[in-house]
Specification:
elongated
Length: about 775
């Protein structure tokens, strides 16, 4: 909802309250301010009057207007269809800076121009061209609603065009604040200010309402109704109403309907309008309105012919008043929101969204005040005669008055602070609560105002007190208790999983989540174990999810296939999730897959880079930490028989890494697909400081001739078991295969006390070669 500071001042004197302070107060008392907008018209936009209008000689859709601005008359070329003689308009003079027409330009400057051979010395503006909400398809016509129209006066000098618009967000229970009066009441409570509301007036017509209206009720109802009658000879829109209704999405094309909606926007009271037949015979007799329930139980208003005029608080079926003079019945109504919401939930009937939204959230029950405001609006912007008096229908049952009994200490206990009884009573009175104290003063009997439909309990009263008292006025109290440490093995395990996930995300992998259910036949096809038949699902959700998954890899490759079909060339995914053994024992696994391009086509790789086993293994190492590879004795069915290895950490096998079997690649239409299935997710250790040698490292490479079928892991264990002094690390560097197979190994020596001489390095290398020759028959390649 958008509230205008200009219209707030109708109910409340806020002149001395700065806009920043006002918004802060609204936030403090629970009315959230979402946006603050300064409504301000640019300089050199003045009031003008169209003296003449004639067709453009060279353009059918343009008119040439003579516009008086007091000091001179200017010629303006205008293309708006609604421009007419004697209109007061907003005229942008040369040099005026109007808001830009796109986000790329902040503003544009009005200049003298020539349009199809005719000079134009400015521009007659529409509302949107001035930065306001659009109110029509043409120019904005000025009227006295903004103040006295003085030719040549800048619009920025009018208070209406120099104000703030406050967009507020309301919780569902605050239907009372869906109007300007509701926001004004909240501010009045916070600042302890009086609220000014319109009173009933007589407008000089001798005829009483009984001459025009005969009201009867045919059943016991819970709604409240109040009626006035007016004879309207002519009516016009009010510009300030149109602009505010447009900002709130309430603007219509009918002048009387706009006045009705504006009165609703201001007061929160719901209105309906019924035209009275104008024939000579009907005008002699009062119009009969009957109130009763319809077949669905909704409280409705019918005319004498039994035609339904409205469902109270839901929809008006009467036709709009389009021609004048006309005599109309104005109905102000209130329907209990809970009753209405329950009925609408039970019976799906035709609704007016604007009416229903406000009624179900709780409209204002102050019908006489609301209809007095409506009559005041009509008296200003219509030539009308308002019949004296009003007719009222109020059928509130005894016992429906909400009386809440509580003691003073309830509020003090709830907020954790001793508050004086007088201060509690004062704040509740500021909120318009009626208070009566018991004889001994220990208890309060509190009646909420009629428009606060959400106040039902002592807790609600406490919340209302605290809103105005201010939570910042309550000193925080330390929580006095001993709390056991919450660091549990479960938490540490979860944190470890998320640390691994963060590593994968940092390397560009996407995290996925799949169902723990999968298709049994597919698991068998992938060579995975399945649940024992006695432990299978008895009532699967679908035939394709008829068992619990025993591996993450099939589901990950299903997703990879779908993404590939959507045109993605590079696929990198991982999942940390539950899998089940044949005995239906649950444990967590990590699945990592890649497919397609490792890097996209870009310099220096115009064809991109594709995944290979070693680059994928390096990526997996970046996720789970360093590891070594050992040839798999029996490759899984899903793995390439010659590109598959066990992942070893601290001498234990924690998973498998492999290229996807060619048959599965073909079936899924994937290329260069690799996967890693981690059965035992490693616990990432915290980096700790360790001693480092002060001396520089010595690096030596040796190339040996050796049987190509010997795994490097055996070569590594052989060298490490020889306890070669100062050897810090070793790793394979390269391989050569011609007539014989050659392997290059890099040895890194880290001396601790003194630098190694060439002789010492040579002896260590010889010891390494001797070990390899003795164990594997390896020879140094010359």
């Amino acid at each position: 909802m958008v509230v205008s500071s200009y219209f707030l001042s109708y109910f409340l004197d806020i002149e001395s309250i700065g806009i920043a302070r006002l918004c802060e107060t609204l936030n403090d008392i629970g009315i959230e301010v979402e946006q603050l907008h300064r409504l301000q018209i640019s300089k050199r936009v003045v009031v003008g009057k169209v003296l003449e209008k004639s067709p453009h000689p060279n353009a059918d859709k343009l008119n040439v207007c003579q516009v008086d601005i007091g000091s001179e008359t200017l010629q303006i070329v205008c293309g708006a269809k609604n421009v007419a003689k004697d209109q007061y308009v907003a005229l942008a003079l040369e040099g005026a800076k109007l808001p830009g027409k796109s986000s790329e330009e902040a503003f544009f400057v009005i200049k003298k121009s020539t349009l199809r051979g005719v000079d134009s010395c400015g521009m007659i503006c529409s509302a949107s061209e001035l930065g306001l909400s659009a109110i029509n398809d043409g120019i904005m016509v000025l009227d006295s609603s903004i103040g006295e129209l003085i030719l040549g006066k800048e619009l920025s000098d009018y208070s209406f065009f120099n104000q703030y618009l406050i967009e507020v967000s309301l919780t569902p229970n605050r239907g009372d604040c869906l109007c300007v009066l509701g926001i004004a009441r909240e501010l009045a409570s916070a600042y302890n200010l009086p609220v000014k509301t319109p009173k009933e007036k007589e407008y000089g017509i001798a005829l009483g309402i009984g001459r025009a209206l005969n009201l009867s009720v045919e059943c016991q109802i819970k709604s409240q109704l109040l009626y006035k009658v007016a004879q309207i000879d002519s009516i016009e829109n009010a510009l300030h109403e149109q602009i505010m209704l447009a900002y709130n999405g309430l603007l219509s094309n009918n002048a009387l309907e706009n006045h009705k909606r504006f009165s609703m926007y201001m007061s929160g009271v719901m209105f309906d309008i019924y035209p009275i037949a104008s024939t000579a015979e009907d005008s002699q007799n009062p119009t009969a309105l009957k109130v009763r329930k319809d077949e669905a139980g909704f409280e409705c208003v019918f005319n004498a012919q039994g035609e339904k005029l409205c469902v109270i608080g839901v929809k008006n079926y009467a036709p709009l008043v389009e021609s004048y003079p006309a005599v109309v019945i104005i109905q102000a109504s209130f329907a209990p929101p809970e009753m209405l919401a329950q009925a609408l939930f039970k019976h799906k009937i035709e609704q007016d969204p604007i009416t229903t939204y406000r009624s179900v959230r709780g409209s204002n029950t102050e019908l006489l005040m609301g209809i007095s405001l409506f009559c005041e609006v009509l008296n200003h912007f219509a030539t009308c005669s308002i019949y004296s008096g009003y007719q009222e229908l109020e059928m509130v049952q005894e016992g429906e008055v909400r009386l809440i009994t509580m003691d003073f200490h309830t509020i003090a206990k709830a907020i954790g602070k001793d508050v004086q009884k007088e201060e509690i009573a004062q704040i509740l009175k500021q909120l318009n609560f009626h208070i009566e104290a018991s004889g001994d003063g220990a208890f309060l009997h509190i009646t909420p105002p009629s428009y606060r439909h959400d106040i039902r309990s002592p807790q609600d009263i406490t919340e209302e007190f605290l809103r105005i008292y201010g939570i910042k006025n309550i000193q925080p109290i330390p929580y006095a208790s001993t709390q056991k440490p919450n660091i549990t093995p479960t938490l540490l395990r979860y944190q470890n999983f998320r640390d691994i996930a963060k590593r994968a995300l940092s390397l560009g992998f996407y995290e996925t989540i799949h169902y723990v259910f999968y298709q049994r036949s597919k698991l068998l096809e992938w060579g995975c174990e399945v649940l024992d038949s006695t432990l299978e699902l008895k009532n699967p959700i679908t035939s394709e999810l008829d068992t619990l998954r025993t591996s993450l890899i099939p589901g990950l490759f299903d997703s990879a296939c779908r993404n590939h079909n959507l045109g993605y060339k590079s696929i990198k995914m991982f999942e940390i999730g539950s899998v089940y053994s044949a005995k239906r024992e649950e444990h967590k696994e990590l699945g990592i897959i890649v497919s397609g391009m490792k890097t996209k086509e870009a310099f220096p790789h115009p064809k991109g880079e594709r995944w290979d086993f070693y680059s994928f293994a390096q990526a997996v190492s970046g996720i789970i930490g360093g590891f070594s590879l050992v040839q798999t004795a029996t490759p899984p069915k899903s793995a390439h028989p010659y590109i598959c290895a066990d992942i070893m950490q601290e001498g234990k096998c924690i998973g498998t890494i492999a290229k996807l079997h060619p048959s599965f690649e073909k079936q899924l239409e994937l290329q260069d697909a690799f996967y890693a299935q981690i059965h035992t997710i490693p616990a990432l250790s915290v980096s700790q400081a360790s001693a480092q040698a002060k001396l520089h490292a010595n690096v030596r490479d040796i190339t040996i001739l050796i049987d190509k079928n010997i795994p490097f892991s055996q070569i590594q264990r052989c060298i490490e078991s020889s306890a070669i002094e100062n050897l810090h690390t070793l790793y394979p560097l390269d391989i050569y295969e011609d007539s014989q197979f050659a392997l290059t190994i890099r040895l890194v020596f880290m001396p601790e006390e003194k630098s190694l001489t060439e002789e010492e390095l040579g002896s260590r290398i010889q010891k390494t070669l001797a070990c390899l020759e003795q164990q594997f028959g390896a020879k140094l390649k010359i």
